TrEMBL record:
InterPro entries: Carboxypeptidase_A_C_sf (IPR027461), Class_I_gatase-like (IPR029062), LdcA_N (IPR027478), Peptidase_S66_N (IPR040449), Peptidase_S66C (IPR040921), S66_fam (IPR003507)
A single BP term in Gene Ontology: proteolysis
Molecular function as annotated in GO: carboxypeptidase activity; serine-type peptidase activity
Superkingdom as given in the UniProt entry: Bacteria
Keywords attached to this entry: Carboxypeptidase, Hydrolase, Protease, Serine protease
Span of domain LD-carboxypeptidase N-terminal: 13-127
Name assigned to this protein: Peptidase S66
Length: 298
């Protein structure tokens, strides 16, 4: 796995739309944050474009991201916001130069398309807050992104909730948004999870759909030879008038119990204010005990 070069003061971070639209005035908080870290920001040509929901047409978003991928002066790329749309451009991108000279790509939610695709290319990426979410992000969450970008040590230790599966594992961390991972199954962007530790999170889903997605991941071998499972925020879950009968913990636990791996729930990452940075593709040590959960990036 290639780890892109860590940033240093004076480096430039490009901000682009790969999915929903985002406007220059919305970017100011992110620009100010980068400047406070000694970094420069460059807004992509898609910032300010308005194509219905999207930040420009597919052609415009492809061209903007491609330019950022190939520009030697851009040391990291920060996707402006999620929503939907990255999958519409992923197959039109040329990663040939990027594979030789990788750089950090950052974001979460719909950016899982890029995280997953980059993992298949053997390049690490950063699951993190985005310019759209910077204004509401706590300072300690912003600090986790800074540490990841500058190559500083990241280690999380949080309190157990009481229904985890205890154990210890070591492996490469992969994953992202559950709905996106589910949608990529069978494509060239789908993850190989063998020997790895999988992170999943989601937003605004019905419980029966969480079950359907988990069952499909299982049938596609996602949990065979998996070393561990980290479940992040499962925000704003819904049930039908006739209840499904299990919440997200029950649904995931029912599948995970067959694999005898450590599992934690509600890890502070995903669609919530406490969205801590994860370096996908990096080797981690993951431990779940009766009292605490430890995720240590080696």
């Amino acid at each position: 796995m290639k780890i892109p070069p860590y940033l240093k003061k004076g480096d430039t971070v490009g901000i682009v739309c790969t999915a929903r639209k985002f406007f220059p005035e919305e970017a100011q908080a992110a620009i100010d944050l980068l400047k406070s870290w000694g970094l420069e920001a460059k807004l992509g040509k898609t910032i300010g474009l308005d194509s219905c929901q999207l930040g420009g047409t597919d052609k415009e978003r492809t061209a903007d991201l491609q330019e950022m991928l190939d520009d030697d002066n851009i040391k990291a790329i920060w996707c402006a916001r999620g929503g939907y749309g990255t999958v519409r451009i992923i197959d039109s991108l040329d990663f040939s130069k990027f594979k030789k000279h990788p750089k950090w790509i950052m974001g979460f939610s719909d950016v899982t398309v890029l995280h997953s695709h980059l993992n298949t290319l053997g390049i690490a990426s950063i699951h993190s807050i985005m310019p759209f979410t910077v204004p509401k992000a706590p300072e300690e969450v912003k600090e986790t992104l800074r540490k990841a970008l500058f190559g500083e040590k990241i280690r999380y230790e949080i309190e157990s909730k009481g229904y985890e599966f205890q154990g210890k594992a070591k492996g490469q961390l992969v994953g992202g948004n559950l709905s996106i991972l589910y949608s990529l199954l069978g494509s060239q962007s789908s993850l190989d999870t063998k020997g790895k530790i999988l992170f999943i999170e989601d937003l605004d889903e019905y419980l029966y759909h969480i079950d359907r997605m988990m069952q499909n991941l299982k049938r596609n071998g996602y949990f065979e030879n998996l070393k561990g499972l980290i479940v992040g925020s499962m925000t704003d879950m819904h049930d039908n008038e006739i209840p499904f009968g299990q919440n997200e913990v029950g649904i995931i636990s029912e599948i995970a119990k067959d694999y005898k791996i450590p599992v934690c729930f509600y890890f502070p990452s995903g669609h919530q204010k406490d969205n801590r940075t994860l370096i996908l593709g990096k080797e981690v040590e993951f431990e779940v005990t009766k009292d605490k959960i430890i995720l240590d990036f080696k």
